[in-house]
Amino acid sequence: MSELKRTPLFESYAKFGGKTIDFGGWELPVQFSSIKEEHAAVREAAGLFDVSHMGEVYIEGSESLDFLQKLLTNDVSKVAINQTQYTTMCYENAGVVDDLLTYRLDEQKYLLVINAANIEKDVAWMEEQAKAFSDVVVTNVSDQFGQLAIQGPKAIEALQQLTDYQLLDVKPFHLAQNVTIAGYSTLISRTGYTGEDGFEIYGSPETIVSLWDAILTSGEVVPCGLGSRDTLRFEACLPLYGQELSKDISPLEAGINFVVKLGKEMDFNGKATLAAQKENGVPRKLIGIEMIDKGVPRHGYKVFKGDEEIGEVTTGTQLPSSKRNVGLALIKTEYAQLDEILEIEIRNRRLQVKTVATPFYKRQK
Q1: Mean pLDDT computed over 153-182
Q2: Which of 18, 73, 119, 130 can bridge 55 by disulfide, Cβ–Cβ 3.0-4.6 Å?
Q3: Domains in the chain, please, with CATH?
């Protein structure tokens, strides 16, 4: 068995009671207090996550924009300097290589933030795609960065105590470079993966270790693990690669149509297939489900309409806040209208569910 990777903050987990698990080859904290308490903290106050396992890749050169327009489904030409864009990277069959954030740092310099389990695959894919361009440099800089995410209605207030920079000047899906926080230089982005307001903070590994301690003593902020990160993103219906998105699931099937810009001039990977899906309708659709019978839907459970198997659950749990037993399921489109009565199979038993509206949680502005 290969040794698990660790982030720069690994030694800090125990001080806060962190319980670690194997997550995609990384030894990361699943919780510090409890998933329920950490979930509530982010919804009501502020939580801090170590997300230093995420990957970072620089794209540079005079053809960097053309390269990204070919590589990504969203329209990168709309991204101004110091702006952020969520997007997907697809294969020709419209299956997803990864979903990611694109940061425009300068006229010819971009930072892509990719999923930890996909770093090697993604970088190899980018390097292969870059061969068609004469002036594009792809550089994996994941080891040079650590990353924190502070999320929740009191997150900005807590972080503001540590910097003279006016954080509210950074609009959602924008970033600020060279921001000094607690004496350390960082890049901050007003983005997140919880459905709440807040910032993702990038810095050197040493900087992130120092900021973790500084932020956790700055106000009403609690350390949070992967467990609550998953329940929070699921409650807000934000997709997880490997579940709602994969090499076999297109962004249109996953319902994130806004990342697919078929009208942009540059032909991009998967465009023809995505155009056909949009024209003819997707064969499958991601839909919310809620238990009618007693039980909890889980990833991989099969979904049925009568005797016909029509799909499977991608994510499901009992929501910590509302106690609803809900899930997301990728099913045949003809059964994806609201209030459809379906069944899922749990331990060889068929239990009733109904299709429901998503997201399960939406932040009040």
Answers
A1: 97
A2: 119
A3: 10-52+145-235 (3.30.1360.120), 55-142 (3.30.70.1400), 283-365 (2.40.30.110)
